[in-house]
Amino acid sequence: MPTEDLGKIETIVQGIAASQGIAYGQIFLYLKSDIEVPSYQIEPTKRLDEISRFDQAILVTRQQIQKIMAEVDKNLGPDEARIFDAHLLVLEDQALIAETIREFESTGLNVETCFNKISQRYINAFAEIDDEYLRERAGDLRDVAQRVLQNLLGQPDQSLSRLVEKRVVVANDVSPSDAAGIDSSQAIAIITDLGSKTSHAVIVARSMQVPAVVGLRDITKQVKHGDWALVDGYEGIVILNPSEQTLFRYGKIKRIKKGFEQRLREANRQPAVTLDGITVTLRANIEKVDEVSLVKDFLANGVGLFRTEYLYLNANRIPSEDEQYFAYKTVVEALAPAPVVIRTLDLGGDKPMAGAAHLFPKEDNPFLGYRAIRFCLDHPDIFKDQLKAILRASMHGTVHLMYPMISGREELARANTVLDECKAELDAKQVAFDRKLLVGTMIEIPSAAVTADLLAKDCGFFSIGTNDLIQYLLAIDRGNNSIAHLYEPTHPAVLRILKNVVDQGHQQKIKVSVCGEMAGDVIYVPLLLGLGVDELSMTPPLLPAVKYFIRSMKLSDARSLADEALKITSPKEIYALCERFYNERVKVE
Question: Containing H/E element for 377?
Protein backbone atom coordinates (compact mmCIF):
# COMPACT_ATOMS: atom_id res chain seq x y z
CA MET A 1 0.00 0.00 0.00
CA PRO A 2 1.41 3.48 -0.81
CA THR A 3 3.33 5.10 2.06
CA GLU A 4 1.28 8.31 1.90
CA ASP A 5 -1.79 6.34 3.04
CA LEU A 6 -0.09 4.72 6.02
CA GLY A 7 -1.78 5.84 9.22
CA LYS A 8 -5.12 6.56 7.56
CA ILE A 9 -8.09 4.80 9.12
CA GLU A 10 -9.78 2.02 7.19
CA THR A 11 -13.43 2.98 6.61
CA ILE A 12 -16.20 0.68 5.39
CA VAL A 13 -19.15 2.25 3.56
CA GLN A 14 -22.26 0.20 2.69
CA GLY A 15 -24.12 0.84 -0.55
CA ILE A 16 -26.09 -1.15 -3.14
CA ALA A 17 -24.31 -3.95 -5.01
CA ALA A 18 -24.86 -3.05 -8.66
CA SER A 19 -22.23 -4.76 -10.80
CA GLN A 20 -20.30 -7.76 -9.53
CA GLY A 21 -16.54 -7.84 -9.08
CA ILE A 22 -13.75 -6.63 -6.83
CA ALA A 23 -11.37 -3.79 -7.66
CA TYR A 24 -8.70 -1.81 -5.85
CA GLY A 25 -7.14 1.45 -6.94
CA GLN A 26 -6.87 5.21 -6.63
CA ILE A 27 -9.93 7.43 -6.82
CA PHE A 28 -10.84 9.80 -9.63
CA LEU A 29 -13.41 12.20 -8.12
CA TYR A 30 -15.84 13.37 -10.79
CA LEU A 31 -17.96 16.32 -9.67
CA LYS A 32 -20.21 18.04 -12.18
CA SER A 33 -21.31 21.57 -11.40
CA ASP A 34 -24.94 22.54 -11.89
CA ILE A 35 -25.65 24.69 -14.91
CA GLU A 36 -26.56 28.25 -13.99
CA VAL A 37 -29.37 29.36 -16.28
CA PRO A 38 -29.62 33.13 -16.76
CA SER A 39 -33.08 34.67 -17.04
CA TYR A 40 -33.83 37.73 -19.15
CA GLN A 41 -36.45 39.16 -21.49
CA ILE A 42 -36.18 38.77 -25.25
CA GLU A 43 -37.11 41.76 -27.41
CA PRO A 44 -40.22 41.11 -29.57
CA THR A 45 -38.22 41.67 -32.77
CA LYS A 46 -35.77 38.90 -31.82
CA ARG A 47 -38.25 36.21 -30.78
CA LEU A 48 -38.10 34.30 -34.07
CA ASP A 49 -34.31 34.19 -33.74
CA GLU A 50 -34.71 32.81 -30.21
CA ILE A 51 -36.91 29.95 -31.44
CA SER A 52 -34.37 29.24 -34.20
CA ARG A 53 -31.64 29.10 -31.56
CA PHE A 54 -33.69 26.52 -29.65
CA ASP A 55 -34.21 24.45 -32.82
CA GLN A 56 -30.46 24.54 -33.51
CA ALA A 57 -29.64 23.40 -29.94
CA ILE A 58 -32.02 20.45 -30.31
CA LEU A 59 -30.37 19.54 -33.63
CA VAL A 60 -26.84 19.73 -32.21
CA THR A 61 -27.85 17.68 -29.17
CA ARG A 62 -29.34 15.00 -31.42
CA GLN A 63 -26.09 14.85 -33.43
CA GLN A 64 -24.04 14.53 -30.22
CA ILE A 65 -26.19 11.66 -28.95
CA GLN A 66 -26.06 9.86 -32.29
CA LYS A 67 -22.26 10.13 -32.20
CA ILE A 68 -22.21 8.68 -28.67
CA MET A 69 -24.50 5.84 -29.82
CA ALA A 70 -22.11 4.98 -32.64
CA GLU A 71 -19.14 4.93 -30.27
CA VAL A 72 -20.96 2.79 -27.71
CA ASP A 73 -22.13 0.40 -30.44
CA LYS A 74 -18.54 0.02 -31.59
CA ASN A 75 -16.98 -0.35 -28.12
CA LEU A 76 -19.67 -2.13 -26.08
CA GLY A 77 -22.26 -3.44 -28.52
CA PRO A 78 -25.74 -2.68 -29.93
CA ASP A 79 -27.67 -3.50 -26.74
CA GLU A 80 -25.74 -0.89 -24.77
CA ALA A 81 -26.10 1.62 -27.60
CA ARG A 82 -29.87 1.25 -27.39
CA ILE A 83 -29.72 2.92 -23.97
CA PHE A 84 -29.64 6.17 -25.91
CA ASP A 85 -32.84 5.47 -27.82
CA ALA A 86 -34.65 6.98 -24.83
CA HIS A 87 -32.51 10.13 -25.15
CA LEU A 88 -33.45 10.56 -28.79
CA LEU A 89 -37.11 10.05 -27.89
CA VAL A 90 -36.83 12.96 -25.44
CA LEU A 91 -35.61 15.20 -28.26
CA GLU A 92 -38.53 14.04 -30.42
CA ASP A 93 -41.08 14.66 -27.67
CA GLN A 94 -43.36 17.22 -29.29
CA ALA A 95 -45.13 17.90 -26.00
CA LEU A 96 -41.85 18.95 -24.33
CA ILE A 97 -40.84 21.14 -27.27
CA ALA A 98 -44.30 22.64 -27.76
CA GLU A 99 -44.68 23.45 -24.06
CA THR A 100 -41.27 25.15 -24.09
CA ILE A 101 -42.28 27.32 -27.04
CA ARG A 102 -45.65 28.15 -25.43
CA GLU A 103 -43.85 29.14 -22.24
CA PHE A 104 -41.53 31.36 -24.28
CA GLU A 105 -44.40 32.98 -26.19
CA SER A 106 -46.37 33.71 -23.02
CA THR A 107 -43.47 35.01 -20.87
CA GLY A 108 -40.99 36.40 -23.39
CA LEU A 109 -38.16 35.00 -21.27
CA ASN A 110 -35.06 33.54 -22.91
CA VAL A 111 -35.52 30.01 -24.19
CA GLU A 112 -32.99 28.49 -21.72
CA THR A 113 -35.20 29.60 -18.82
CA CYS A 114 -38.35 28.26 -20.49
CA PHE A 115 -36.81 24.91 -21.44
CA ASN A 116 -35.29 24.48 -17.99
CA LYS A 117 -38.68 25.08 -16.34
CA ILE A 118 -40.62 22.66 -18.58
CA SER A 119 -37.98 19.90 -18.62
CA GLN A 120 -37.71 20.08 -14.82
CA ARG A 121 -41.45 19.51 -14.56
CA TYR A 122 -41.08 16.31 -16.61
CA ILE A 123 -38.02 15.22 -14.60
CA ASN A 124 -39.91 15.68 -11.33
CA ALA A 125 -42.86 13.65 -12.64
CA PHE A 126 -40.60 10.68 -13.41
CA ALA A 127 -38.61 11.06 -10.18
CA GLU A 128 -41.80 10.56 -8.13
CA ILE A 129 -42.70 7.24 -9.78
CA ASP A 130 -42.66 4.28 -7.38
CA ASP A 131 -41.27 1.76 -9.87
CA GLU A 132 -37.47 1.79 -9.56
CA TYR A 133 -36.75 1.19 -13.24
CA LEU A 134 -39.16 3.87 -14.45
CA ARG A 135 -38.00 6.32 -11.77
CA GLU A 136 -34.48 5.99 -13.16
CA ARG A 137 -35.75 7.32 -16.48
CA ALA A 138 -35.72 10.76 -14.87
CA GLY A 139 -31.96 10.43 -15.43
CA ASP A 140 -32.51 10.19 -19.19
CA LEU A 141 -34.46 13.43 -19.17
CA ARG A 142 -31.94 15.16 -16.90
CA ASP A 143 -29.04 14.05 -19.09
CA VAL A 144 -30.64 15.29 -22.30
CA ALA A 145 -31.85 18.54 -20.70
CA GLN A 146 -28.32 19.28 -19.51
CA ARG A 147 -26.94 18.74 -23.00
CA VAL A 148 -29.54 21.04 -24.54
CA LEU A 149 -28.82 23.75 -21.96
CA GLN A 150 -25.06 23.43 -22.51
CA ASN A 151 -25.58 23.86 -26.24
CA LEU A 152 -27.88 26.86 -25.74
CA LEU A 153 -25.36 28.50 -23.42
CA GLY A 154 -22.32 27.58 -25.51
CA GLN A 155 -20.74 25.64 -22.64
CA PRO A 156 -18.28 22.77 -23.21
CA ASP A 157 -19.51 19.24 -22.58
CA GLN A 158 -18.51 17.87 -19.18
CA SER A 159 -17.07 14.42 -19.76
CA LEU A 160 -15.25 11.52 -18.13
CA SER A 161 -13.16 11.07 -21.27
CA ARG A 162 -10.31 12.90 -19.54
CA LEU A 163 -9.73 9.78 -17.42
CA VAL A 164 -6.22 8.83 -18.56
CA GLU A 165 -5.07 6.42 -15.82
CA LYS A 166 -6.63 3.36 -14.22
CA ARG A 167 -8.92 4.75 -11.53
CA VAL A 168 -11.98 4.08 -9.38
CA VAL A 169 -14.54 6.61 -10.63
CA VAL A 170 -16.39 8.30 -7.75
CA ALA A 171 -19.33 10.58 -8.60
CA ASN A 172 -22.57 11.92 -7.24
CA ASP A 173 -24.22 10.14 -10.15
CA VAL A 174 -23.11 8.95 -13.57
CA SER A 175 -25.42 9.83 -16.44
CA PRO A 176 -25.65 7.66 -19.57
CA SER A 177 -23.58 10.21 -21.50
CA ASP A 178 -20.97 10.23 -18.75
CA ALA A 179 -20.82 6.44 -18.70
CA ALA A 180 -20.51 6.26 -22.47
CA GLY A 181 -17.49 8.56 -22.33
CA ILE A 182 -15.60 6.37 -19.89
CA ASP A 183 -12.57 4.57 -21.30
CA SER A 184 -13.25 0.98 -20.27
CA SER A 185 -9.52 0.32 -20.08
CA GLN A 186 -9.08 3.06 -17.47
CA ALA A 187 -12.17 2.81 -15.21
CA ILE A 188 -11.64 -0.15 -12.90
CA ALA A 189 -14.81 0.49 -10.83
CA ILE A 190 -17.68 2.96 -10.47
CA ILE A 191 -19.15 4.16 -7.17
CA THR A 192 -21.83 6.83 -6.73
CA ASP A 193 -23.81 8.73 -4.11
CA LEU A 194 -27.08 8.14 -5.97
CA GLY A 195 -28.45 5.45 -8.25
CA SER A 196 -30.04 2.03 -8.09
CA LYS A 197 -29.59 -1.40 -9.66
CA THR A 198 -31.47 -0.20 -12.75
CA SER A 199 -29.54 3.03 -13.40
CA HIS A 200 -27.73 3.42 -16.71
CA ALA A 201 -24.38 3.74 -14.94
CA VAL A 202 -24.97 0.22 -13.68
CA ILE A 203 -25.96 -1.10 -17.11
CA VAL A 204 -22.78 0.30 -18.65
CA ALA A 205 -20.64 -0.93 -15.73
CA ARG A 206 -21.96 -4.45 -16.24
CA SER A 207 -21.30 -4.19 -19.96
CA MET A 208 -17.71 -3.09 -19.28
CA GLN A 209 -17.52 -5.85 -16.65
CA VAL A 210 -16.31 -3.48 -13.94
CA PRO A 211 -17.56 -3.54 -10.33
CA ALA A 212 -20.09 -0.90 -9.31
CA VAL A 213 -21.58 0.15 -5.98
CA VAL A 214 -24.29 2.84 -5.95
CA GLY A 215 -26.50 4.57 -3.39
CA LEU A 216 -23.59 5.46 -1.06
CA ARG A 217 -25.29 8.79 -0.17
CA ASP A 218 -22.26 11.04 0.48
CA ILE A 219 -19.20 9.13 -0.67
CA THR A 220 -18.11 12.13 -2.78
CA LYS A 221 -17.74 14.14 0.45
CA GLN A 222 -15.66 11.47 2.17
CA VAL A 223 -12.93 11.14 -0.45
CA LYS A 224 -10.56 13.19 -2.59
CA HIS A 225 -8.53 12.67 -5.75
CA GLY A 226 -5.86 10.03 -5.26
CA ASP A 227 -7.34 8.31 -2.19
CA TRP A 228 -7.27 4.50 -2.30
CA ALA A 229 -10.44 2.39 -2.31
CA LEU A 230 -11.40 -1.24 -2.52
CA VAL A 231 -14.74 -1.84 -4.24
CA ASP A 232 -16.75 -5.00 -3.51
CA GLY A 233 -19.49 -5.19 -6.13
CA TYR A 234 -20.79 -8.48 -4.69
CA GLU A 235 -21.74 -7.17 -1.26
CA GLY A 236 -22.14 -3.47 -2.13
CA ILE A 237 -19.23 -2.42 0.08
CA VAL A 238 -16.58 0.24 -0.47
CA ILE A 239 -13.53 0.17 1.82
CA LEU A 240 -11.54 3.40 1.96
CA ASN A 241 -7.85 3.13 2.87
CA PRO A 242 -7.96 -0.69 3.22
CA SER A 243 -5.32 -2.30 5.42
CA GLU A 244 -2.85 -4.89 4.13
CA GLN A 245 -4.83 -7.59 5.94
CA THR A 246 -8.04 -6.47 4.18
CA LEU A 247 -6.32 -6.45 0.79
CA PHE A 248 -4.96 -9.96 1.39
CA ARG A 249 -8.40 -11.22 2.45
CA TYR A 250 -10.08 -9.70 -0.61
CA GLY A 251 -7.45 -11.16 -2.90
CA LYS A 252 -8.58 -14.62 -1.77
CA ILE A 253 -12.27 -13.62 -2.05
CA LYS A 254 -11.74 -12.41 -5.61
CA ARG A 255 -10.26 -15.74 -6.70
CA ILE A 256 -13.05 -17.69 -4.99
CA LYS A 257 -15.82 -15.52 -6.50
CA LYS A 258 -14.47 -15.88 -10.02
CA GLY A 259 -14.47 -19.65 -9.67
CA PHE A 260 -18.02 -19.64 -8.29
CA GLU A 261 -19.26 -17.45 -11.15
CA GLN A 262 -17.90 -19.97 -13.61
CA ARG A 263 -19.84 -22.71 -11.82
CA LEU A 264 -23.02 -20.58 -12.02
CA ARG A 265 -22.59 -20.10 -15.76
CA GLU A 266 -22.13 -23.84 -16.26
CA ALA A 267 -25.18 -24.63 -14.09
CA ASN A 268 -27.32 -22.15 -16.01
CA ARG A 269 -26.90 -24.28 -19.13
CA GLN A 270 -28.48 -27.20 -17.28
CA PRO A 271 -32.21 -27.68 -16.48
CA ALA A 272 -33.56 -26.35 -13.16
CA VAL A 273 -34.11 -29.76 -11.58
CA THR A 274 -33.83 -30.48 -7.85
CA LEU A 275 -31.76 -33.37 -6.49
CA ASP A 276 -34.97 -35.38 -6.03
CA GLY A 277 -35.96 -34.92 -9.67
CA ILE A 278 -38.49 -32.05 -9.56
CA THR A 279 -38.33 -29.54 -12.41
CA VAL A 280 -38.85 -25.89 -11.42
CA THR A 281 -40.02 -23.34 -14.01
CA LEU A 282 -37.91 -20.17 -14.02
CA ARG A 283 -39.07 -17.18 -16.05
CA ALA A 284 -37.86 -13.61 -16.54
CA ASN A 285 -39.27 -10.19 -15.66
CA ILE A 286 -38.84 -7.61 -18.44
CA GLU A 287 -39.71 -3.96 -18.99
CA LYS A 288 -38.89 -3.38 -22.65
CA VAL A 289 -39.00 -5.16 -26.00
CA ASP A 290 -35.22 -5.15 -26.41
CA GLU A 291 -34.81 -7.13 -23.17
CA VAL A 292 -35.81 -10.25 -25.08
CA SER A 293 -32.10 -10.80 -25.71
CA LEU A 294 -31.53 -11.06 -21.94
CA VAL A 295 -34.31 -13.64 -21.62
CA LYS A 296 -32.54 -15.75 -24.26
CA ASP A 297 -29.02 -15.14 -22.94
CA PHE A 298 -29.97 -16.34 -19.45
CA LEU A 299 -32.05 -19.25 -20.81
CA ALA A 300 -35.29 -18.35 -19.02
CA ASN A 301 -38.45 -20.40 -19.68
CA GLY A 302 -40.21 -17.40 -21.18
CA VAL A 303 -41.43 -14.23 -19.48
CA GLY A 304 -43.32 -14.33 -16.18
CA LEU A 305 -43.92 -10.58 -16.07
CA PHE A 306 -43.87 -8.18 -19.01
CA ARG A 307 -44.49 -4.73 -17.55
CA THR A 308 -46.16 -2.63 -20.25
CA GLU A 309 -45.94 0.82 -18.63
CA TYR A 310 -42.79 1.81 -20.53
CA LEU A 311 -44.79 2.00 -23.78
CA TYR A 312 -46.78 4.82 -22.20
CA LEU A 313 -44.17 6.52 -20.03
CA ASN A 314 -41.66 6.83 -22.88
CA ALA A 315 -44.29 8.45 -25.13
CA ASN A 316 -45.87 11.88 -25.24
CA ARG A 317 -49.31 10.38 -25.90
CA ILE A 318 -51.28 7.21 -25.29
CA PRO A 319 -49.91 4.59 -27.74
CA SER A 320 -52.35 3.23 -30.28
CA GLU A 321 -53.63 -0.36 -30.44
CA ASP A 322 -51.39 -1.04 -33.45
CA GLU A 323 -48.28 0.37 -31.76
CA GLN A 324 -48.87 -1.83 -28.74
CA TYR A 325 -49.65 -4.86 -30.89
CA PHE A 326 -46.32 -4.51 -32.69
CA ALA A 327 -44.40 -4.34 -29.38
CA TYR A 328 -46.16 -7.35 -27.85
CA LYS A 329 -45.93 -9.34 -31.10
CA THR A 330 -42.17 -8.72 -31.28
CA VAL A 331 -41.62 -10.21 -27.81
CA VAL A 332 -44.08 -13.09 -28.24
CA GLU A 333 -42.67 -14.14 -31.64
CA ALA A 334 -39.08 -13.95 -30.44
CA LEU A 335 -39.74 -16.27 -27.48
CA ALA A 336 -42.31 -18.67 -28.97
CA PRO A 337 -43.30 -21.28 -27.98
CA ALA A 338 -42.27 -20.22 -24.43
CA PRO A 339 -45.07 -18.26 -22.73
CA VAL A 340 -45.09 -14.50 -22.22
CA VAL A 341 -47.18 -13.17 -19.32
CA ILE A 342 -48.27 -9.65 -20.30
CA ARG A 343 -49.45 -7.52 -17.40
CA THR A 344 -51.99 -4.87 -18.31
CA LEU A 345 -51.28 -1.23 -17.66
CA ASP A 346 -50.14 -0.27 -14.15
CA LEU A 347 -50.11 3.47 -14.69
CA GLY A 348 -51.62 5.78 -12.12
CA GLY A 349 -50.86 8.05 -9.19
CA ASP A 350 -47.38 6.69 -8.52
CA LYS A 351 -46.56 6.38 -12.25
CA PRO A 352 -47.95 9.52 -13.85
CA MET A 353 -47.60 9.82 -17.60
CA ALA A 354 -45.96 13.17 -18.27
CA GLY A 355 -47.41 13.31 -21.80
CA ALA A 356 -50.98 12.90 -20.49
CA ALA A 357 -50.80 14.54 -17.07
CA HIS A 358 -54.50 15.51 -17.21
CA LEU A 359 -55.44 11.84 -16.81
CA PHE A 360 -53.60 11.53 -13.50
CA PRO A 361 -54.68 13.99 -10.81
CA LYS A 362 -52.27 14.75 -7.96
CA GLU A 363 -52.91 12.47 -4.99
CA ASP A 364 -51.88 12.56 -1.33
CA ASN A 365 -51.33 8.79 -1.28
CA PRO A 366 -50.79 7.55 -4.83
CA PHE A 367 -49.70 4.03 -3.78
CA LEU A 368 -53.23 3.41 -2.51
CA GLY A 369 -54.89 5.58 -5.09
CA TYR A 370 -56.01 5.90 -8.67
CA ARG A 371 -53.81 3.41 -10.51
CA ALA A 372 -53.57 0.16 -12.45
CA ILE A 373 -56.89 -1.69 -12.90
CA ARG A 374 -58.79 1.17 -11.24
CA PHE A 375 -57.53 3.60 -13.87
CA CYS A 376 -58.16 1.13 -16.70
CA LEU A 377 -61.76 0.41 -15.69
CA ASP A 378 -62.37 4.16 -15.57
CA HIS A 379 -60.89 4.59 -19.07
CA PRO A 380 -62.32 1.68 -21.09
CA ASP A 381 -61.16 3.19 -24.39
CA ILE A 382 -57.51 3.06 -23.26
CA PHE A 383 -58.00 -0.35 -21.63
CA LYS A 384 -59.67 -1.83 -24.72
CA ASP A 385 -56.85 -0.72 -27.02
CA GLN A 386 -54.38 -2.59 -24.84
CA LEU A 387 -56.52 -5.69 -24.43
CA LYS A 388 -57.14 -5.95 -28.17
CA ALA A 389 -53.43 -5.52 -28.87
CA ILE A 390 -52.62 -8.35 -26.45
CA LEU A 391 -55.32 -10.58 -27.94
CA ARG A 392 -53.99 -10.01 -31.46
CA ALA A 393 -50.43 -10.75 -30.31
CA SER A 394 -51.61 -14.06 -28.85
CA MET A 395 -51.71 -15.51 -32.39
CA HIS A 396 -47.91 -15.28 -32.65
CA GLY A 397 -46.96 -17.52 -29.73
CA THR A 398 -48.09 -18.31 -26.20
CA VAL A 399 -49.57 -15.33 -24.36
CA HIS A 400 -50.97 -15.18 -20.84
CA LEU A 401 -52.81 -12.00 -19.82
CA MET A 402 -52.60 -10.69 -16.25
CA TYR A 403 -54.40 -7.89 -14.39
CA PRO A 404 -52.55 -5.85 -11.72
CA MET A 405 -53.89 -4.50 -8.40
CA ILE A 406 -57.06 -6.61 -8.35
CA SER A 407 -58.68 -6.17 -4.92
CA GLY A 408 -61.53 -8.66 -5.20
CA ARG A 409 -63.80 -10.83 -7.32
CA GLU A 410 -66.09 -8.00 -8.44
CA GLU A 411 -63.17 -6.01 -9.88
CA LEU A 412 -61.92 -9.11 -11.67
CA ALA A 413 -65.38 -9.68 -13.14
CA ARG A 414 -65.52 -6.10 -14.45
CA ALA A 415 -62.13 -6.50 -16.12
CA ASN A 416 -63.18 -9.78 -17.72
CA THR A 417 -66.37 -8.16 -19.01
CA VAL A 418 -64.27 -5.57 -20.85
CA LEU A 419 -62.07 -8.38 -22.18
CA ASP A 420 -65.15 -10.22 -23.49
CA GLU A 421 -66.28 -7.03 -25.25
CA CYS A 422 -62.85 -6.80 -26.91
CA LYS A 423 -63.10 -10.40 -28.10
CA ALA A 424 -66.53 -9.68 -29.59
CA GLU A 425 -65.21 -6.58 -31.37
CA LEU A 426 -62.31 -8.55 -32.87
CA ASP A 427 -64.71 -11.31 -33.93
CA ALA A 428 -66.89 -8.73 -35.66
CA LYS A 429 -63.85 -7.62 -37.66
CA GLN A 430 -62.78 -11.24 -38.25
CA VAL A 431 -59.48 -10.62 -36.44
CA ALA A 432 -57.96 -13.83 -35.04
CA PHE A 433 -56.83 -14.34 -31.44
CA ASP A 434 -56.07 -17.29 -29.18
CA ARG A 435 -59.43 -18.41 -27.76
CA LYS A 436 -57.65 -20.47 -25.10
CA LEU A 437 -55.72 -17.45 -23.82
CA LEU A 438 -55.04 -17.86 -20.09
CA VAL A 439 -56.19 -14.91 -17.97
CA GLY A 440 -54.81 -14.48 -14.47
CA THR A 441 -54.36 -11.90 -11.77
CA MET A 442 -51.58 -10.43 -9.71
CA ILE A 443 -51.99 -11.08 -6.01
CA GLU A 444 -50.51 -7.95 -4.46
CA ILE A 445 -53.32 -6.50 -2.34
CA PRO A 446 -54.08 -8.21 1.01
CA SER A 447 -57.81 -8.33 0.22
CA ALA A 448 -57.04 -10.37 -2.91
CA ALA A 449 -54.75 -12.70 -0.97
CA VAL A 450 -57.38 -13.27 1.75
CA THR A 451 -60.10 -13.97 -0.83
CA ALA A 452 -57.86 -16.08 -3.08
CA ASP A 453 -60.42 -18.90 -2.84
CA LEU A 454 -63.00 -16.67 -4.54
CA LEU A 455 -60.62 -15.27 -7.18
CA ALA A 456 -59.22 -18.68 -8.08
CA LYS A 457 -62.61 -19.76 -9.44
CA ASP A 458 -62.36 -17.10 -12.17
CA CYS A 459 -58.61 -17.20 -12.86
CA GLY A 460 -56.34 -19.23 -15.10
CA PHE A 461 -53.35 -18.57 -12.80
CA PHE A 462 -52.08 -16.45 -9.90
CA SER A 463 -48.86 -14.43 -9.86
CA ILE A 464 -47.86 -13.08 -6.47
CA GLY A 465 -46.28 -9.61 -6.49
CA THR A 466 -44.42 -9.88 -3.20
CA ASN A 467 -43.04 -6.31 -3.31
CA ASP A 468 -46.42 -4.60 -2.92
CA LEU A 469 -48.09 -7.44 -1.03
CA ILE A 470 -45.52 -7.26 1.78
CA GLN A 471 -45.56 -3.47 1.76
CA TYR A 472 -49.35 -3.32 2.11
CA LEU A 473 -49.60 -6.27 4.50
CA LEU A 474 -47.06 -4.83 6.96
CA ALA A 475 -47.94 -1.14 6.33
CA ILE A 476 -44.30 -0.47 5.43
CA ASP A 477 -43.21 2.11 2.86
CA ARG A 478 -40.02 0.55 1.49
CA GLY A 479 -38.82 3.97 0.35
CA ASN A 480 -39.00 5.41 3.86
CA ASN A 481 -35.53 5.00 5.37
CA SER A 482 -36.90 5.38 8.91
CA ILE A 483 -38.95 2.19 8.68
CA ALA A 484 -37.46 0.29 5.72
CA HIS A 485 -35.83 -2.14 8.17
CA LEU A 486 -39.33 -3.31 9.13
CA TYR A 487 -39.92 -4.63 5.59
CA GLU A 488 -39.51 -8.33 6.38
CA PRO A 489 -40.35 -10.98 3.76
CA THR A 490 -40.00 -13.63 6.49
CA HIS A 491 -42.66 -12.07 8.74
CA PRO A 492 -45.06 -14.86 9.86
CA ALA A 493 -47.98 -12.90 8.39
CA VAL A 494 -46.27 -12.96 4.97
CA LEU A 495 -45.63 -16.70 5.13
CA ARG A 496 -49.19 -17.46 6.17
CA ILE A 497 -50.74 -15.34 3.45
CA LEU A 498 -48.43 -16.83 0.79
CA LYS A 499 -49.43 -20.31 1.95
CA ASN A 500 -53.11 -19.39 1.72
CA VAL A 501 -52.76 -18.07 -1.85
CA VAL A 502 -50.87 -21.19 -2.96
CA ASP A 503 -53.30 -23.59 -1.29
CA GLN A 504 -56.40 -21.87 -2.67
CA GLY A 505 -54.91 -21.71 -6.15
CA HIS A 506 -54.01 -25.39 -6.12
CA GLN A 507 -57.43 -26.32 -4.81
CA GLN A 508 -58.85 -24.85 -8.02
CA LYS A 509 -56.03 -26.56 -10.01
CA ILE A 510 -54.36 -23.34 -11.15
CA LYS A 511 -50.63 -22.60 -11.02
CA VAL A 512 -49.20 -20.03 -8.64
CA SER A 513 -46.03 -18.10 -9.46
CA VAL A 514 -44.06 -15.38 -7.68
CA CYS A 515 -42.75 -12.47 -9.74
CA GLY A 516 -41.65 -10.13 -6.95
CA GLU A 517 -38.15 -9.62 -5.57
CA MET A 518 -38.42 -12.67 -3.29
CA ALA A 519 -38.35 -14.92 -6.37
CA GLY A 520 -34.84 -13.80 -7.33
CA ASP A 521 -33.33 -13.96 -3.84
CA VAL A 522 -31.65 -17.32 -3.26
CA ILE A 523 -32.29 -17.10 0.50
CA TYR A 524 -36.08 -17.18 -0.07
CA VAL A 525 -36.20 -19.61 -3.02
CA PRO A 526 -36.49 -22.83 -0.96
CA LEU A 527 -39.08 -21.21 1.30
CA LEU A 528 -41.27 -20.28 -1.68
CA LEU A 529 -40.89 -23.69 -3.31
CA GLY A 530 -41.54 -25.39 0.02
CA LEU A 531 -44.76 -23.41 0.40
CA GLY A 532 -45.85 -24.87 -2.93
CA VAL A 533 -45.10 -22.07 -5.41
CA ASP A 534 -45.02 -23.56 -8.93
CA GLU A 535 -42.96 -20.98 -10.84
CA LEU A 536 -40.49 -18.16 -10.13
CA SER A 537 -39.94 -15.09 -12.30
CA MET A 538 -37.09 -12.64 -11.81
CA THR A 539 -34.68 -10.16 -13.40
CA PRO A 540 -32.71 -12.21 -15.97
CA PRO A 541 -29.21 -11.84 -14.44
CA LEU A 542 -30.46 -13.47 -11.21
CA LEU A 543 -31.40 -16.72 -12.98
CA PRO A 544 -27.99 -18.49 -12.84
CA ALA A 545 -27.67 -18.24 -9.03
CA VAL A 546 -31.27 -19.38 -8.49
CA LYS A 547 -30.89 -22.29 -10.92
CA TYR A 548 -27.60 -23.33 -9.31
CA PHE A 549 -29.25 -23.43 -5.88
CA ILE A 550 -32.26 -25.38 -7.14
CA ARG A 551 -29.89 -27.98 -8.57
CA SER A 552 -28.19 -28.20 -5.14
CA MET A 553 -31.30 -28.94 -3.05
CA LYS A 554 -34.15 -31.42 -2.65
CA LEU A 555 -37.72 -30.20 -2.88
CA SER A 556 -38.59 -32.51 0.02
CA ASP A 557 -36.08 -30.58 2.18
CA ALA A 558 -37.60 -27.28 1.04
CA ARG A 559 -41.05 -28.49 2.13
CA SER A 560 -39.67 -29.44 5.54
CA LEU A 561 -38.05 -25.98 5.74
CA ALA A 562 -41.39 -24.29 5.00
CA ASP A 563 -43.22 -26.45 7.57
CA GLU A 564 -40.67 -25.49 10.22
CA ALA A 565 -40.75 -21.80 9.24
CA LEU A 566 -44.55 -21.68 9.61
CA LYS A 567 -44.16 -22.70 13.26
CA ILE A 568 -41.67 -19.93 14.11
CA THR A 569 -42.91 -16.53 15.35
CA SER A 570 -39.77 -14.42 14.81
CA PRO A 571 -39.00 -13.04 11.31
CA LYS A 572 -35.29 -12.95 12.13
CA GLU A 573 -35.28 -16.60 13.22
CA ILE A 574 -37.09 -17.60 10.03
CA TYR A 575 -34.52 -15.69 7.95
CA ALA A 576 -31.66 -17.35 9.85
CA LEU A 577 -33.25 -20.73 9.16
CA CYS A 578 -33.41 -19.97 5.41
CA GLU A 579 -29.86 -18.62 5.40
CA ARG A 580 -28.57 -21.77 7.12
CA PHE A 581 -30.45 -23.92 4.57
CA TYR A 582 -28.63 -22.09 1.75
CA ASN A 583 -25.17 -22.16 3.34
CA GLU A 584 -25.40 -25.89 4.02
CA ARG A 585 -25.99 -26.61 0.32
CA VAL A 586 -24.07 -23.94 -1.59
CA LYS A 587 -20.34 -23.58 -1.04
CA VAL A 588 -18.78 -20.57 -2.74
CA GLU A 589 -15.23 -21.85 -2.17
Answer: helix 372-378
